[in-house]
Amino acid sequence: MQLKDKVAIITGSASGIGKEIAIEYAREGAKVAIADLSLAAAQATADEIVKSGGQAMAVAMDVTDEVAVDAGTAAVVERFGGLDVLISNAGIQIIAPIVDFTYADWKKLSAIHTDGAFLTTRAAMRAMIRQGRGGAIIYMGSVHSHLASPLKSAYVTAKHGLLGLARTVAKEGAKDGIRANVICPGFVRTPLVDKQIPEQAQALGISEADVIKNVMLKDTVDGEFTTVQDVARCAVFLAAFNTTALTGQSITVSHGWHMQ
Ligand code: NAD
Q1: 103 among known catalytic residues
Q2: How far is the CA of 15 from the centre of ligand 1 (A)?
Q3: Residue 87 CB less than 6 A away from ligand 1
Q4: Rounded to two decimals, what is the model's pTM?
Q5: Beta strand extents in 50-100 (DSSP E only)
């Protein structure tokens, strides 16, 4: 068990990548807090984990709400006796050409990815510094932290921004043993991507099969989707690696779509 008794808050973990990380962390012995918009959805994931013998709690947390983030983090620290890992994972996708992108959509996406990452980081760092046993902060970036694609201006901007935040946290957090890294997955079949396939097909005037083959997986080494398990294993590795030798980095898990 690589994460025995570590306490982890995982945002956006009622679904997709975050949910798989929570399951994998619990299997590795961590106490996991499922933080998501809907308490019922978070509770369902927490119940699933507890039923399979893990330790989990649900927290209603909109990552753009300062009060909810601070209160949710405090509730986890209180219930599980501290905080060792934050996975800032909650996210959405909105696709449109820049000339048609509404300012409201731009602000909505930026708030969840960028403001959410800041607010959860601040709450986690305060808790980690107070308890004095270091910690790991992991951001869910994307291949789009390094590359751009058409129609994804807000997402690409926000995901690039997470690299800057992680590097700053790495520098400010080092003296307290806090490490910060970014995982950059390629396309993973989750509700976020399933929604994009028909949207991109329509926006680009091509079939859904062509979106998968010629847009999403075109530059991978083997035409394969990355899986939630691939990303979760990487998240275990980063949390379990307990020295500041590995901080301020990004790791791309994408079947070779992007090679750093
Ligand atoms: P998903 O839609 O399955 O899950 C996203 C979760 O975030 C949902 O449970 C949703 O309720 C939650 N969420 C949304 N807004 C929130 C808010 N304001 N506060 C709290 N929770 C909120 O999507 P996913 O594919 O699992 O995406 C998770 C992360 O991985 C995102 O940051 C996404 O950008 C990133 N990512 C996904 C892929 C992919 O191909 N799926 C690739 C690279 C990066």
Answers
A1: no
A2: 7
A3: no
A4: 0.98
A5: 55-60, 85-88
pLDDT digits (tens, 9 = 90+) for 160-196: 999 999 999 999 999 999 999 999 999 999 998 999 8
Structural domains present in the chain: 7-186+227-252 (3.40.50.720), 187-225 (no CATH)
What angle (nearest 5°) sits at the alpha carbon of residue 142, between those of residues 136 and 147? 130
Mean local confidence (pLDDT), 75-88: 98
As given in the structure block, the two tokens for residue 100 are: 């048609």
Give the integer Cα–Cα distance in Å for 183 and 177.
20
Which DSSP helix (H) or strand (E) runs through 31?
strand 31-36
CB 37 less than 6 A from any atom of ligand 1: yes
To test the pocket of ligand 1, the residue of 10, 11, 17 to mutate (highest count of ligand atoms within 8 Å of its CB) is: 17
Question: What is the arithmetic mean of pLDDT over 232-251?
Answer: 97
Q: What pLDDT was estimated at residue 79? A: 98
